[in-house]
Amino acid sequence: MLLDKDFVATEIAPRTKEKQEVIKTGVWRCPICTYDNEDSMSECEICGVLRNPLVKFSGNGDSAAANFKRLLSLDMPSPEKEKNILIESELAAKGPDSSSASMARDEHGGVKDRDSASDSGSKPEILISSMRSVSLSSKARTENVNEEMDISNMQYKPESWMMADQAEDRLSQLNLAIVGHVDSGKSTLSGRLLHLLGRISKKEMHKYEKEAKQQGKGSFSYAWALDESAEERERGITMTVAVAFFNSRKYHVVLLDSPGHRDFVPNMISGATQADAAILVVDASMGSFEAGLDAIGGQTREHTQLIRSFGVDQLIVVVNKMDIVEYSQERFDMVKKKLGTFLRSCGYKDSSVSWIPVSAMENQNLVATSDDKRLLSCAHLRTSEIIELRVSACGKLETGAIRTGSKVLVMPSREIATVRSMERDSQVCNIARAGDNITVNLQGIESNLVTAGGVLCHPDFPVRVANHLELKILVLDVTIPILIGSQLELHIHHVKEAARVVKILSLLDPKTGKVMKKAPRCILSKQNAVIEVVLHGLVCVDEYAKSRALGRVSLRSSGRTIALGLVTQILKRQE
Ligand SMILES: Nc1nc2c(ncn2[C@@H]2O[C@H](COP(=O)(O)OP(=O)(O)OP(=O)(O)O)[C@@H](O)[C@H]2O)c(=O)[nH]1
């Protein structure tokens, strides 16, 4: 069997890169519109597609392994110095409230897409905000992180993107296919979005409106921005995939407006094979939604199955034409229930699907919250029902670098999560490096597994977790000496844990650091000593020589700091 070249590129090889190989000397072919661009061009002259965008991880084979390696992107430019700690974090698990999929979410601290936010002020964003929950996610999952993994001999080689001077800190490309049943409003929605986001000027829009009216097709004016051929306009349907783009803070979004008519499914496929994520548009009106789901000829059904088979696992369902059904909550719920069941049967996880009721025609719920009270109440209900568990962690990046899409090991729970988005100084960023204070939005993990005082680290370089430590301490001005059995409070990075002194190994000369006395009975004010403590719970920790951030402690008692110290050894765990 002869495999079609496109198929090979899509299913086996890292798709975009393969397809952008130089095919003639001095030119590269755009994977979207197939235009042959000059080699010097970094984006397609015709449709604006970036030449070598972030390659989508495609799940199997060698290329997948290579991609996965690349996506395990947390690491340390100086492996000799510090092996494993990446974020010493305040890991504030914000849980469901920080879901970026919820309509009213942005008021509560979600990641803002400033491009659209600027249009809509500080109001919650709707369809556009849901686009942020779509990401170029890795499908891989690292499992069986070995608790006792010996990391001492492992050398990590930093990748070039981690180095500030070599980093390509530019927008990643997100190919977003717009699919759905014929006449569901895909082109109108695309045209509206482009207009609202400033990609279509008022003048151009005015021209489309005028021309559409002249041909007695006034309702198609937004669709005409994408349906450019005379035949498409005459017939009022999309026939080829229309390509348009806009930039958000995070992504160079390439919109692929697909034809809905069943005669043009092959064209739809050619666009959808490029997609990283999709917007499925359904028509909420009576009969139309049902027709789209019909087992014979329903394109809602067919398109959904097709895009799923191309590996698109993140979906925004736009329930359009809500104006026709009077913005009925009941209708929206019905659509969600029926279509939700079908999506699950296609393999979509509830957490990867966002639902947005909109009216593309009346501009409701697209880049700003609907001002229609009926839709607003519908939206709020949706928020509390379909909350997507998204967990945020904030803290300081101690070593190395991290980027969107990275897999991280969440300690001490030992769960793998994916970095969905990041914020630095309240700005969305794609890459962060040592020293940055960031908020990381994680996906694929439950909020109770991300705890205050936890650490995010490279899955291959797990931070140590212990409850038995050797400490070198300097006792402050105290009236009560420290004895074996003293109950203290140990503070280490952002964690506080009850500690019991189990051994006093030695007193040290404060000037030379040499042992003055072994096994003393107590430690007095201003003395230096080496002690062993056993903690009530486990903490993420490292020896001070390897990580200052995770190896520095203070001991407190009765509300006062009584000693400062360093972790000199991590000892065998005590039950
Ligand atoms: N009432 C109402 N009509 C809409 C809405 N969105 C689109 N329409 C109308 O639905 C018809 C089809 O819209 P299109 O945008 O061409 O639909 P499409 O899904 O792109 O069509 P194909 O690409 O041919 O499948 C047009 O008459 C639009 O004006 C909406 O929100 N409300």
TrEMBL record:
Functional summary from the UniProt entry: This protein promotes the GTP-dependent binding of aminoacyl-tRNA to the A-site of ribosomes during protein biosynthesis.
Pfam families: GTP-eEF1A_C, GTP_EFTU, GTP_EFTU_D2
SMART domains: ZnF_RBZ
This protein's record includes keyword Metal-binding: yes
Name under which the protein is recorded: Translation elongation factor EF1A/initiation factor IF2 gamma family protein
Similarity comment: Belongs to the TRAFAC class translation factor GTPase superfamily. Classic translation factor GTPase family. EF-Tu/EF-1A subfamily.
Molecular function, one GO term: zinc ion binding
Region annotation (Disordered) ranges: 92-124
Keywords assigned: Cytoplasm, Elongation factor, GTP-binding, Hydrolase, Metal-binding, Methylation, Nucleotide-binding, Protein biosynthesis, Zinc, Zinc-finger
Span of domain Tr-type G: 171-385
Record field: catalytic activity: GTP + H2O = GDP + phosphate + H(+)
Record-annotated RanBP2-type domain positions: 24-53
Ranges of Basic and acidic residues composition bias in the record: 104-117
Subcellular location: Cytoplasm
GO cellular component, one term: cytoplasm
